[in-house]
Amino acid sequence: MVKHEIQPLDDSIDEPKVSIQKLYKIFGDTPEAMLDRVRGGMGKPELMDQTGHALGLNNINLDIPARKIQVIMGLSGSGKSTLIRHLNRLIEPTDGEIWVDGEDVMKMDAKELRDLRRFKMSMVFQKFGLLPHRTVLENAMYGLEIQGVSTKEAQQRAVKWLDRVGLAGFEEQYPSQLSGGQQQRVGLARALATDAEILLMDEAFSALDPLIRTDMQSILLELQEELHKTIIFITHDLDEALNIGDNIAILRDGEIIQSGDPQDIIMNPADDYITDFIRDINRAKVVRLRSIVKKGATGAGETLRGGMSLEEALPKLHKSVDGSCPVVDKKGNPLGAVTLDGLIDALKAPETEADDEVRYS
Amino acid sequence: MEFLSEFPALGRKDLASLKQGIDESFRSFSRAYGPEIEAFFNPLLKFLIWFEKLLLGTPWPIVIIVIAALTWLGARSVKVTIGSVIAFLIIGFLGMWEDTMATLAIVSVCTVLCIAIGIPIGILMARSDRTQAIITPILDVMQTIPVFVYLLPVVMLLGIGKVPGLLAVCIYAAPPIVRLTNLGIRLVDRDVMEAAESFGASSREKLFGVQIPLALPNIFAGVNQTIMMALSMVVIASMIGVKGLGGPVLRSISNQYLALGLMNGLAIVALAIIFDRVSQSYGKRLQAYRETGHG
Q: Count of domains in chain A?
């Protein structure tokens, strides 16, 4: 298979905000004793069969850059919700390190950990996790209350964030009076109100209807453009991952099998599992020009941005006399050019080896 | 074959000396520590007497107004309020006012005592499975052991009077509030608890900000049960010298006074219904946020 070279979206490389190193989580009676077997290469099914221990996470290494949206994607049982709960230690790892802003989370005592949760990380949950006995406003104030902010200031800030997520006027209602989408907006407002730099979102939009889900994704992206938080977003939905992720890590059976730029995952899937995964996506919408640009080439058509989707670029390429257009990055630096043929080629879904076997047998 | 047809029981002599030994040691224990234990419960006795005197010393119209006000505050229902005023008027008119006040006093004090002891125990039980495993069988014993079995040692220790009566009532009436506090806290949604934890709530903040508020409907069901069970104990408590509506009922049994028993019995029922309606509608109002459900 051809290896596609992806032009980076921007070349600023940040220090990782959150860094996960050699993280293992084994569920069972004697998880520590199983560690050597897992390190020795024993997989999830064998460990279950032979010892009755469930392998939750297997040697996770992930650097999460600041001010970006890191998506962690996997099907149910892949360990993604377990992984995100390690970041604020709602679940204790069996072994490994977690660093946030250069501090070792595993070495924190109870008080330091509480402060980490209070001031640095806030979380949005799949099932919302709202306090049913408190009004919308009181829910949005919850994190601030725990921080020790005065009631008056907490109210002002909570009202502001409720307004930002489109819930002005709902302050005095109870969560049970709201729809699912509205409840999750409360969850989002509660998490944003604390001003934490890191936002953990555990399948935050998975329980919502498809339309409301895209709606919430837009709200999140809109807010992110202004807030530049470090967001760690868990999902099982590839479209959602591609829509919002600056980086995507794909998890299977507790292992990261591919991690990086979404374009890289679409263009260069690491194995058949991922190829299968991305087979049904609408490539015209998700593949960007920067993924198919030919370095050094030029074109006669209109100058296009590297972040443009194939769908948007198609009519412009069609208009160009020689069927190719020059491409520039965000800052206007030339990246090369794309051709109509190259674009059509990129629309073709990558094939797995299994497909080849079927075809040639 | 004698071994199989006859159970190998302890000999009559040994059994007798075993029972005697237990009786003797308890008797000497109560002789040695009786006064101290009595002194320990003295403040409770004083409070009970003070409360009873307060109820009896206050002019009856004021008592009825206070009861009406409390009923209104609890139930927010005109029907229940008027109903309880009428019930108290009839009770007074039929000459049971003093006994009713005495019963009201002991049930109220017992309820307060059970709440003060029961809720913390319930919380402890909810926090640790081991505590739960230890306390549950104790509660089982408290609820099922025949009342007379523990009435006897209580009387041996403290004599006949208000305090042993109060203790007997409390032993019987406390389990529901302990059980339901424990259950209520354990039933609090795990997702909500996790959310509170993710925002850095300390265990105190989780207890008072999330667990207890969300367990309140269950805790209130426990309070309601405790009151009902306390009321059902007043007749037995009157056997060991607790004044109140139970006394006339007891007399009516031994003397076949049908009307006396019926009247006092119905007065107990009236009290029970009033307590039940008020505490139930109060408990319902506590969870008003649940009722306005959204599809």
A: 2
